Amino acid sequence: MTPRIWLYPLLAWLLFAWPLKTLAKDSIEQQGDTLQYAIPAVALAATLFYEDGYDGSIQWLKAVVTTETTVYVLKKSVHKERPNGNCCSAFPSGHAATAFTGAAFIQRRYGWGYGVPAYLVAAYVGYTRIESDKHDTTDVAAGALIGILSSYYFVEPYKGIKITPYAANGSYGLMFTGRW
Question: Coiled-coil annotation: which residues (predicted)?
Fold first, then answer.
C-alpha cells in the first residue's frame, strides 16, 4: 500500500493534538465533544493507512453519511426538549450516533480486539451527554443504535470469515463467508 503522505499532518492533529488539548480541560461535555469525532477519525485513518485500496474508506463514508442524515432527519422531525430545558433537538443524540458509528466500524471491519476499546470510548461519549444534561438515556441509546446499524449495514470485515444471521422462508441459521 502506498502511504498518502499529505494526510499525516492532518491525522496527527486529529488523533493527538486536538483531543489532548480538549481532554486537558475540565469539562466532561468538551471531552465528549472531542471523542465523538476521534473515534470515526481513527476508523478512517485505519482504512487509509492500513488497507490497500479504498473499499474501507467508501464503506466508512456510507456509514457516516447514513448516520448523520438519519440523525438530522429525526432531530428535525421529533422536536424533543433536552433535559436542561433547551428546545428541541434532543432525540437522538448525534454525539452518540457519531461515536458509535466509528466504534461499530472498527469492530465490524477489524474485529472485537479493536472494537471493545472503541465501544468503551463511545459509551463514555454517551455518558458525557447524559452527565452534561444534554440527553437522557433514550436519546443516547437511539443514537448508538443508529450508528451501530449504519456500520453493520455497510461495513464488511477487512479479512477473514464473516458470520451473518440468516432468516428466510421459515429457515434460520448462520451464514459463513470468507475472503481469501
Answer: none
Q: Is 127 helix (H, G, I), strand (E, B) or coil?
A: helix
The model's pTM = 0.76
Assess if residue 2 is contained within a domain.
no
Q: Which three cell numbers stand for residue 139?
A: 436519546
Q: Do the domain assignments include residue 1?
A: no
Pair 70, 115: CB distance under 8 Å: no
| Cβ pair 100, 144 in contact under 8 A | yes
CA–CA gap between residue 166 and residue 95 (Å, rounded): 32
**Number of structural domains found in the chain:** 1
The CA distances from residue 44 to 14, 55, 81, 84, 145, in Å, are 11, 11, 33, 33, 20
Task: Please write the tens of the pLDDT for every residue from 136-170.
Answer: 999 999 999 999 999 999 998 887 555 556 677 87
How does DSSP classify residue 140?
H
Which residue range(s) make up the domain with 136? 7-179
